[in-house]
Amino acid sequence: MGQSITVTVNGEKKTAEVEPRLLLVHFLREKLRLTGTHIGCDTTHCGACTVLVDGTPVKSCTMLAVQADGQQVTTVEALAASGTLHPIQAAFKQEHGLQCGFCTPGMMLTSVALLQEKPDPTDDEIRWALSGNICRCTGYMNIVKAVKSAAAQMKASAAVPEAATASARS
Amino acid sequence: MAVETPLKGNIGESIKRKEDDRFIRGRGNYLDDIVLPGMLHMAIHRSPFAHARIKSINTDAAQAVPGVVAVVTGALLAQHKLAWMPTLSGDTQAVLATDKVRFQGQEVACVIATDPYVARDAAMLVEVDYEVLPAVVTPQQALQPDAPLIRDEKEGQTSNHIYHWEAGDKAKTDEAFAKADRVVKLDTFYPRCHPSPLETCGIVADVNSATGHATLYMTSQAPHAHRTLFAIVAGLPEQNIRIISPDIGGGFGNKVPIYPGYVVATAASLLIGKPVKWVEDRSENLISTGFARDFHMSGEMALRNDGRILGLRVKLLSDNGAFYADAQPTKFKAGLFHIVTGSYDVAAAHVEADGAYTNKAPGGVAYRCSFRVTEASYLIERLVESAALEMNLDPADIRLKNFIQPEQFPYMSATGFEYDSGNYPKAMQLALDKLGYKELRKEQAEKRKKGELMGIGVASFTEVVGAGPGKHYDIAGLRMFDSAELRVHPTGKAILKLGVKSQGQGHETTFAQIVTEELGIPAADIEVQEGDTDNTPYGLGTYASRSTPVGGAATAMVSRKLRDKAKKIAAHLLEASEADIEFDHGKFFVRGSPSKSKTIQDVAFAAYTNLPDGMEAGLEGVTYYDPPNMTYPFGTYLVVVDIDRGTGQVKVRRMVAVDDCGVRINPMVVEGQLHGGLTEGFGIAFMQLITFDEEGNCLGSNFTDYLLPTSWETPKFEMGETVTPSPHHPIGAKGVGESATVGSPAAFVNAVIDAVGHLGIRNIDMPVTSDKVWAALSEKGAAE
After folding, report:
1. Is residue B225 included in any domain, yes or no?
2. Which of A55, B122, B171, B584 has its CA 20 to 30 A from that of B379?
3. What is the pLDDT of residues B569-581, one digit of tens each?
4. Would the ipTM clear 0.95, i.e. be above it?
C-alpha cells in the first residue's frame, strides 16, 4: 500500500506515493535518480549514504522515506547547485581528499554540517565528527586537511563582505 | 603576489586529479547507478549452514510472489552446464549448489523480480531441506585422516588436501641450519580478513536475445580477462561480449574473481531476455566474496652469533575455503609467497606450502598485495624481530647487518627472484632519522625502569609487483602483459586507452602524465579511457600493483612510438633530415637551431593535413608491453606504541613511513595511496578479522563485527621517500598501491612485541586487540 509523502529535496518539493518500508536512500536514488548518495553497508556503519535532513547528517539507509515526510533533505547534488563548487568540494579536490569517490558525498555532507556548527574545528573535532563515515582509500589525513582548508576558505569569504562594509563606513 | 605557472603535468608534478570533478559533484557512475529500460533485479538465497547435503529445494512459495519473474536453482543451471564454473586456480566452484553446500553463505538459488525489495522477499521464501554435516573450519582439522570430505564431488579427491608446493633449495638450507650458531623459530597465523571496498560487487547483465550480444556492466578490476573467461564459461562467442567496468568504489583485490552472482545474472538475462541487476549487500560481500590471507606459517631462521642470517626455512599451511579460487598466476600455488627472504641477503631458503579445503568461503584474493607477498613480508619481518629479541640485538641493527647491499643489484634471491634495484640502508637510515630512533630507545629504557610499556616497531619490506613477464606469469593461461593505445587528434589533443582499470588510483590523471612527459601534450588535453572492452586494447587489469609497472610502461612505449613518427613529420615540416631533429618537452627542432621548431601540436595537425610522401596518415598506435622482470618496491616503516597495562590497549603514538617506489609520477597521488595502504595495514594489525565458530558460522558478517578503521582510531603518518628507479622500466617507476599494506602490519605488531618482549612475550597474532594483549600480559603476571 502506498503512502503519500512530500519531501523538500535540494530545495524542490517532491511528492510521491511510496511503500512505507522504502528506505530514504532508495527514495533518493531510485525514485528521484539522485545517485550521488551511495550505499556501502546497509547497517548505518559506513556513512556512504549520509544526507542532511533539516541540516543534520543522517544515514539514509536507516531512515524510511516516510519519516522524511515534510522535511528538508540535502544531497551532494545540491552542493554546487549554482554551478560554483562549495568550498568543501573544492577543498576535497585540492587536498586530494578522495580517491575512489564512493565515500566522498557522505564525507562532504558530514563536514558541511560540522562546519556549520564549528566553523573552526580542531583536527580531533574533525576526526570525531567524521568517525561515522568510513573511507577505505585515503587514510583520512587528506580528508582532515580538506575540512580544515574548507573552514579557512569559508571564514575568509565570510570575512570579505564584512571588511568591505567596514571600509565603506569609514 | 607571485603568479603560479600552471602545471603541465610532467612526471613529478602533483597536478590535481581529473576524475575528481565528477566525484565531488556526486556525478560518478558506479555500478548501482546504472538503470536500463525493463531492468529486473536479482536476489540470492544463501546457505545458512557451512556444510550440509541438499535433500530438496522448493521454490513454489517464491515463484508465487507477485513480481517474481523466475527462480533459478542449480538444477536449472545444470541443464545448461552452468552449475559449476572454473576458478582462477584451476579448480571448480559451484555457481548454485546442487549436491551440497560447502560454506555458510554459499549461493543456492536466485530470484529474479521486477523490484529489488520483491526479489529479496521471495529469496527468503525459497525452502531448502538440508541434512547438516559436520563442518571443518581449520586446515589442521581438514587434514586429519578422519575429517569429513568436503569436495566429494571431485573425482579422485580422497582428502581435503589441495596442493603441495615448494620453492628454494632444501639440501642447501639444511646445510645452512647445520652450520648455524642459533636457530630462531616463530609460528604465526595471518588470519582471514576481507578487502571490503566501500562499494560492494555487482553486475547489470544485458543480453540482447535478438542479436546475442551481451553487455555486462561489472565491478571488474580485470574486464578483458573477465570477457575471455565469460566466453569460456558461458560458451558465448567472445565478439558478442562487451564488459563495461564503470567507476569502481574501491577494489583492493575483491573485484578480481568472477562470482556466481555474475554468472547467474548473465544466464538469467539470456533466458528471460531482459537486463538483470545484482548488487551484493555488505553481508553478502563479507561472507561470500574474495577473502584474503588465512595462512598458518612456521618460520625458522638460522643465524650466526653476530646476527648474520644464514638460512630460512618456512612451512606454510593455507586455508583456501571450499573451492580453491585464489586469484594468482597459474604456476604458483601459493602466489609469490616465496619472496619470503624479503630485504635480506639470505644464502639458502626453502619454502614448503600445502593448501587445504575447509567449510569456509573461497577466495584467497590478493588484498592490496601482489599474490601473498603480504603474508611473506609479515613472516620475515616478524622472524627478524624474534631474532633480535632472542639474541638481544637492536631490531634496526640486525636488519642493517643483513640487508642486500646496493651494489648487489640485480640480486638473485635464494628462491629465484631477481630483485631489480634497491638501496635498503638508505631508506632505513632516513626513517630512523625522521623518527629520532636513538632518543626514543633511551625514552623506552627509562620507561621500562618505571614499568611502563613502550615499543618501537621496525619493518623493512620488499615487495615484488608488476607481473609478468608473460612467459612466467599468467592468469588462467592469459599472459600477464598490458596495453596502451594512444591517438593524437589533429588539434593536438589526445585520447589514451588502457587495458588496466582504476578503482580509485587516479589513472585518468597519472597515465596522462606519462604521455605529457613523453610527448609534451599537457595532461589536461589527454582523455584517459579504461574499462570498456569494446573500446580499449586487451589487458590483464589492475591488481598486484601492476598498472604502473606494466600499463604505465605500455603508455610510455606507445608515446615513444608516436614520437618516432612525429619526428619524421617534423623533419618534413622543418625541411631537415630526420637525423638532425631533436625533441625536448613537446618541441621538435633542428639540432643547433632551437629557434626553428615545431610543436607536437603542429606535428599532430600535419599528421592529418601535410604528410611526407608515402607516409600513412594519422598519429596513433598501440603497444602491448610484456615486462622483462617484475619491480621491487621497498621501504622502512617505524611505529611507536604505548601500551596500557591495565587494559591492554595499544596506542599508536607515531608512525614513520619511508617508501621507495622508484620514480614518482604524481607525488600527491603516491602519498595518497600510501596513506590508504597504511590505514588498511593498521586495520589488519589491530581490527579486521573474519573468523568462524566451530559450526562454520561466519562471525565477521557485517561492519559491527568486522571492524574497519575510522578517522578516530587511524594514526597520523609521517612520510618520507627515497627514489631508486627500476632499471628495466621505461620511466623507472615501480608501483606503489600496495606497499603500505604489505609492509605495515609487521611494523605495528613488532612495535607491540618490542614493548612486551622483555616480559617473555614472543608473539601475539593479529588482530592485536586489547583483550589479547591483556591476556598475554596477565599470563606473565604483568597486567595491572
Report:
1. yes
2. B171
3. 999 999 999 999 9
4. yes
